[in-house]
Specification:
The protein is mainly α. The chain contains 22 helices and 2 strands. It has a single domain, classed as Up-down Bundle (Amino acid/polyamine transporter I), CATH 1.20.1740.
Length: 455
């Protein structure tokens, strides 16, 4: 274990060094400018084209295996997870309040990144004769950039399949196991077995069963968590201005409480931000590609996915921790969030526990699909069932494993898998702009030249 920690520490330092930070934020900023600040100028329009249509029960007639709402529910099942609670708490504990500011920054430009991932996922997906759909980063690299770039697609697929065992598997199972052990004294091995059974019962049924489950659980768990957070914030309303002040002031200075420097604030703010909203990882494009929608409109679902995840849910967690003055306790991870909620309202820690369980459960479901589709691209359909069983085995390992190493390895794998995707997004900005312009013209594209083979 010590050897693994040392090796991972070296790789992590390279992966999350300044060059990668520049690539990650720079890609989001580049796409924001390239798309004409689309995520800001068309945010309300995006709501009308997404949740507005869902509430109006408007359906799309495009090809796909699941609805747009099911797609975004599945994608948000993979994003609204442990990262929103334990991830934000860890960022605050290690990077200080200023980390929240950099989390916001990564989220705002990440909205453009996620728009691109979802839109390109639909644009370059493959629909087989039996209606089965395959899509995601691997496909928009190969089909968008050409066969000479297939090596990059294969690299991404291999890394994504491995990363699923970290961000969407062991981290989730480990956090749930630790929380249940702390709160209820449940042995971690028992939690591991229960999680294995419950996840297997859904994932073995494929994307339609995953999407159906996510569609029911995700809205419920998000609303429950947000309401609990709002109650605490309303009860501590006078403390909110000071909390916001600490976030902005410590984003550029040393935190007197935690000793966090600007570098740590940026490092953990961006790292935990991408862990939470996954903008830049590209994994969500795999499930967005399944949606019955056009590229640009599905991209709008991606924009709101990041906004709800980071700007709303993550901010709620951060403010609750700050207004309840839980940060100086020295706790970290889910324990810090539980301490804050316990301080804020009676039995608030149990709300965190319920949220963690539901968040983590749906995250594990979605990331199983991401991983299997990634490796299917490389190894063929025969790998799907073995991958599902391997995924279940690692859930148990994660439940009984060490928290620090699991988080560190997950961080490293996130950075490694993001790099090929970010390169592809930069090179495919031209067809992405074309899809945006096509939408703005009401779907008409006769007078627009589709850059099918242009990079």
């Amino acid at each position: 274990m010590e050897v693994i920690e040392e090796i991972n520490s070296v790789i992590n330092g390279i992966v999350w060094g300044p060059p990668f930070m520049i690539l990650l934020i720079g890609t989001g900023l580049f796409l924001t400018i390239r798309l004409g600040f689309f995520q800001f100028t068309h945010l309300i329009d995006a709501w009308n084209q997404t949740f507005g249509q869902y509430f109006a029960r408007t359906t799309n007639e495009e090809q796909g295996t699941i609805s747009s709402f099911q797609a975004v529910s599945s994608a948000m099942a993979g994003t609204i997870g442990v990262g929103n609670i334990a991830g934000v708490s860890t960022a605050l504990a290690l990077g200080g309040p200023g980390a929240v500011f950099w989390m916001w920054m990564s989220g705002l430009v990440g909205m453009a990144t996620k728009f691109g991932e979802a839109a390109l996922g639909v644009r370059y997906r493959e629909i087989e004769a039996d209606g089965t759909i395959s899509g995601g980063v691997m496909y928009y690299i190969e089909k968008g950039l050409g066969s000479r770039w297939r090596w990059l697609a294969v690299l991404y697929a291999l890394l994504a399949g491995l990363a699923a065992f970290g961000i969407g598997n062991m981290v989730q199972a480990n956090t749930v196991a630790q929380e249940l052990n702390l709160r209820l004294g449940v042995p971690t091995w028992i939690t591991g077995i229960v999680v294995l059974v419950l996840v297997g019962a859904v994932t073995l049924g494929g994307i339609t069963r995953i999407a159906s489950t996510a569609e029911k659980i995700v809205p419920f768990m998000a609303i429950l968590y947000i309401l609990g957070s709002l109650i605490i914030l309303l009860l501590n309303l006078p403390s909110i201005p000071a909390a916001l002040g600490a976030i902005f002031s410590n984003a550029f200075s040393t935190d007197s409480i935690t000793g966090a420097t600007v570098g740590l604030a940026i490092r953990y703010g961006i790292a935990r931000g991408i862990f939470s909203n996954e903008a830049g990882l590209g994994a969500a494009s795999i499930v967005h590609a399944q949606a019955r929608n056009t590229p640009a409109r599905q991209g709008m679902w991606g924009m709101w996915e990041v906004f709800i995840d980071t700007i709303i849910v993550c901010t709620m967690t951060a403010l609750v921790i700050l207004v309840t003055d839980a940060l100086p306790t020295g706790a970290t991870g889910a324990e810090l969030a539980s301490t804050a909620f316990d301080t804020g309202i009676p039995a608030g820690g149990f709300l965190v526990m319920i949220g963690l369980i539901l968040f983590a459960y749906t995250t594990m479901l979605t990331w199983n699909f991401y991983g299997e589709k990634s490796w299917e691209y490389v190894f063929g359909k025969g790998v799907v069932l073995p991958y599902r069983f391997l995924f279940l085995a690692f859930l148990f390992i994660g439940a009984i494993g060490g928290l620090t190493l699991v988080w560190d390895v997950a961080d490293t794998l996130n950075g490694l898998m993001a790099a090929p995707n970010l390169i592809a997004l930069l090179l495919l900005s031209k067809p992405l702009v074309w899809e945006k312009n096509r939408y703005l013209r009401g779907g008409a594209s006769d007078d627009l030249v589709d850059p099918v083979s242009e990079v």
